[in-house]
Known about the structure:
There is one protein chain. By secondary structure, the protein is of the alpha+beta class. The protein has helices spanning 3-23, 216-222, 322-327, 344-359, 365-379, 381-407, 412-426, 434-453, 492-508, 516-529, 534-559, 574-591, and strands at residues 73-77, 81-86, 91-101, 108-110, 121-125, 131-133, 140-141, 148-150, 156-164, 169-177, 182-190, 200-205, 224-229, 232-236, 244-247, 250-253, 255-259, 263-269, 274-285, 291-302, 308-319, 474-477, 489-491. The model is unreliable at 27-56 (pLDDT under 50).
Amino acid sequence: MDRQQTIGFILITFILIFWMWYVAPKPQDIKTQKTEVAPQTENKIAENPTTEAKKEEPPSAFFQSQTIKAEEIITIETDLYVAQISTNGGVLKKWQLKKYNLWNKKEKVDLIDQSLGGDLNLLFTSKDGKIINTKTHQFNFVKKLPARITLKENESYKIDLSLPSANGEIIKSFTFKNNEYVFDFDVELKNMNDVVANYEYQVEWENGLLYSERNSYDESSVAKSFVYSGGELTELDVANIGENLEISPNGNTDWVATRTKYFALAIIPQDKKATSAFLSGKHYEAKPMGSVEKYTIALTLPFKGEQNHKTNFKIFLGPLEYSLIKKLNYNLEEIMTLGWSWIRPITVYIFIPLFNFLHGFISNYGILIIIFTLVLKILMFPLTRSTTKSMQKMQALAPMVEEIKQKYKEDQSQANIQVMKLYRDYGANPAGGCLPLLLQMPILSALYSLFSNAIELRQSNFVFWMSDLSVPDVIFSLPFKIPLLGLQDFSGLALAMGVTMFLQQKMTITDPRQKALVWMMPVMMTLLFNNFPAGLNLYYFAFNIFAISEQIYYKNKKMKEPLKKVEKKGKSSWFEGVQRKLEESQKSQKKK
């Protein structure tokens, strides 16, 4: 490689490193067994009295006659989850996913913090000026139910809960279906026209979703809340610790949602459009090491004083699996982390279909990633072939370039003209190696988004120590942290990737003046990739192996082929144009 090509490679590499560093998750203390969540504060869901959730002091006259009874809980089990409904607030108190374990693999993922009493509440202002939050009231099951209900095959089950008022009744209904992460939630207001003020009420999910991963920094980096309205997605992200934000978009709203790294909740009104939405979020530190983002999401529904007002909602509460989310047909896939907007189509229309197609034949995701990498390497062959050929041709011309520089060392302008002429005669392009690398960057970015957030890789075992492709594959740990770098745990695949990158650099860089690049870039990339998910590092490692094989093939092939000048065809080339400008510039300088 000559000086210009080296500079180009260095710039491209540093751009890639900066981007990777920017999006990389912070390391989590491997010894941390549990993330402590900061105490939950009282929730404020809007600025106007209609939508503030606070304790009623004194209670509303419309609900004073309520009889306090012992809490009753109904458990619903399907093939996908175990849920619980409580009469205290008429809330969803538990949502335990049967197919997903916590990061420690000892317990199942529960998306609801049961210590906070459950969720899915109604909020409104009563006509005596009190703020009503149904979470603070006791409901009754409309009919006698068994303590546990198990659904099989295509079965469904409806549970009705009633909250009586002085003049009317609020009915909350839950309809669960087997093999679906979506359930129906109905709100019925009977004779509540003399109770509900301001012609509106809210359906609210107050306490966000429980985290389920070891690295809470990583999970917080993608946790957000969303409003989808008029085909546009608005998001709220409390990215900094100590931040507390809220937004209240007005207008017809299709749905609101919140997510963690791998799971999501969405409230989707069916028969009536919500008139506005509310999102609030708080980001706080979790001890001993970590951070947590909690989001409240709410929809405002119109109430025109009907004698029997009823609204139906679909509630999604499950994994962020693209094919599953896409089938719901609500555009919920917009909340998934699939890369920047201009890169997202690559992920959605190429990588995910290919990934799913291969999974139909290959169950082990580690093997699948290797085959996936091979397929992409073949598809990218024209780009990498151009890069390899250009680099090899530049290496072959390097001695001639050095001779020209020595011959015209007193005349730099003439040296440049002669070097350009040499490149033109042999059909070499100094930018030929850089441009394909630039074209590959969107592909690498899309793959980063896919492998960093694919729930399919979560707790997916490969071989040996690689028992979870969604987190760094720690092969050994030091008893201390390395000063400045802060490293203590080391990824086996990141080290293997660094070795293969070193071999690539060794094969590519032959100029003794550039020997520092042989080890510098692999070391930097190894340190950078050390905290990346094992699945992503497996991809890069496999890609490097295939690239080395390709380089060896071309090297052996080119050693048998003598360097030849190319025949001049057609109109002037780019190099001839550059050379002509250099000659004109030199002549102009000589005249002066």
